[in-house]
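Changelog note: in this version the structure field was regenerated for every chain. One regenerated record is shown below for reference.
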Amino acid sequence: MENNPKEDDIEEVDDTEEEPPANTIEELLFRELVVLKLGLHRNAKPPFLMRYSEESGRGLIATRNIKTGEIIMEETPAVWGPKAKGACCLECGLELHKLSSFHFCNLCHLHFCSGECCAAHPRPECVEMQKLHIKTDSLEYLGKLTLVIVVLRCLLLPETAPQNWARIRLLQDHLENSKETKLKKLNQKFLVNFLRDIGLDKNQISNKEIHRVCGILDSNAFESITLDGVESRALFPLSALANSSCLPNLTHVTRKDRTMVMVATRDIQEGQELFICYTGIRWGKITRQKHLLLTKHFLCCCPRCLDPTECGTFISSIKCAQCEGNMIQDVQIGSSEFDMPWHCQDCKLEMEHKKVVAVEAMIGQMLKLINKNSTQHLEGASRKLKQLLTSHHYILLEMYMSLVTLYEKKKEKPEKIVELCDILLPVLQKLEGSSRAVALLVISRICAQVSMYKDGKEEFLNSGWFEDSILKFDEAYSLIKYDVQAPVTINELQSTIEILKEERDPNNKDYPKLATTEEHPGKDHAHQPPNAESMERVI
C-alpha cells in the first residue's frame, strides 16, 4: 500500500507568505515546489529552491550553507509497493510460497500475510480495488498482481490520494525515448493486458496513461531492501528532482515508516546544486555511463566522469602490462562512444579499448567460477586480480566489501576487517562523502578494533584508536540511526564502548559522551553488515 501521510503530518504550504518570482519559468517552478512539498512533514523548511537549466532541466539549489550530516528533507512516499519475483504481502512485502499462507481482504480480495497487514491497507484503496475483478485462486495469479501493484496503485491515486497524484504528475516519464523499446513492448504485452483482464476500464485510463506511469516509475522510483531481504520501490517526487552526479553531496536512508530522509554527505555552499547518484557509485565509468543511458536516457558529464583518473581513485584502471602504471581512458566530452583508446599515465603505452574490455570479461568469467560465500576463494581471487588491476579498481573494491560482510558474519579475522576498511574508506569518502555506506564501514571498523582489543591485540592497533573510535561512532550513528537497516550490533557496540571508557579512564574525564537512546530514536533498527553489489553486475 502507499503510506499516505496523515493530514496533520503534511506541511501546509502558505504560498501567500512570499510572492513567486515574476519570471515565467521561475513562477512555474515555484508553483511546482508548492505541490511537491505536500510530501514533507508539517513545519518543514527545506534549504533549497527549484531552478531550471538547459543542461540538466529542473534541479535543487541550496538557499543557504548546509553542513555535512544535516537533514535536507524527510519525504513520505507518494506510492509504495513490493518488488518481488513471486507472490508476496502487498502491505509488508513478505514473500510467501503457499496459497494457504495468504490472508485475503473480504472486500477487495487483495492478498496479505496476516489480518494485521490486511487491516493496514487504506480504505480508499480498498474501495477502488472492489471495482476490479481480482482473483484469489492461484499463487501464479497472486505473483502477477504483485508485479503490477505499484503501477495499479499509481493509476488509482486520483481517487485514493489526489494530493499524491498531483505530486507524481510533475515527474518526467521519458516516453519519447522509449517509443519502441523492448521494455515498452513487454509492458504492453504483460502489464497492460493484465490490468485490462482485471477490469481496469480503458475509457477511464488509457494505454498511454499506463505507459506514462510505467515511465515515471522507471525513471524516478527509489528501491530499498530490508534486513530480511524484502525489496520494495516507491516514488518520492521531490527527492527524485535532485539531479545525478557520480560525486553526490546527498545520501538517502529509509525509515521503518517508509519516510525517506535526505542527508548532506559534504558541506554545501549557498547556490550550489544538490546531487544524488542515479547509478552504482562504486561502478566503473563505462558501466555507469551505459547504465544511465539505458535507464535514465542521459550521458553523465559530472566532474568525475570527465576526469580520466576519476578523482585520483583510478577506480576503472587496469595495470599497464609494461610498467604496471595506471591505464586511463581518453575522455571525449559529450560523446556516447565508449571505445576511446587507453594509455598508461607513466610510460604512455597505448591500448585499444576492446583489449581492456577483454580483460574485464575474462575476470567476469573467473568470478562466476568462485564461491562468493567463501572467504578463502575471495581472498585468493583478489590476490590474483591485483596482478591485473589497480589497487582501487571497482571489481576489487566490491570483493573487499563482500569480504568485510563475510568476516563479520563468521566473526573472524577482525584485523583483516580493519585492513580492508582502511583501503575502502578513503576511496568511498572521496567519491561519496559521509554516506550511508561509509557510515556502515566505519561501524564495521570500530567493531573489529574493539574485538581486537578484547582479544588482547591492542599492540596491533594505531595509538589513539579508541579516542578516534568514539568520535567516529557518533558521526556514523547520527546518519544510520534513521535507516531500516541500522546494524543489530550497534547497541552492543555502544555499551561495550561505554564499558571500555570506564576501564581506560574511570573518571571519564578524557572521553566525549556517546549519544543516548533518547538522542537516537532509531536505535532499535536492524541491519546487515555493508553489502556489496553483485560482482557479476558491475563487470
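Spot check on this record: Residues 308 and 328 are 6 Å apart (CA to CA). DSSP finds 16 helices and 15 strands in the chain.
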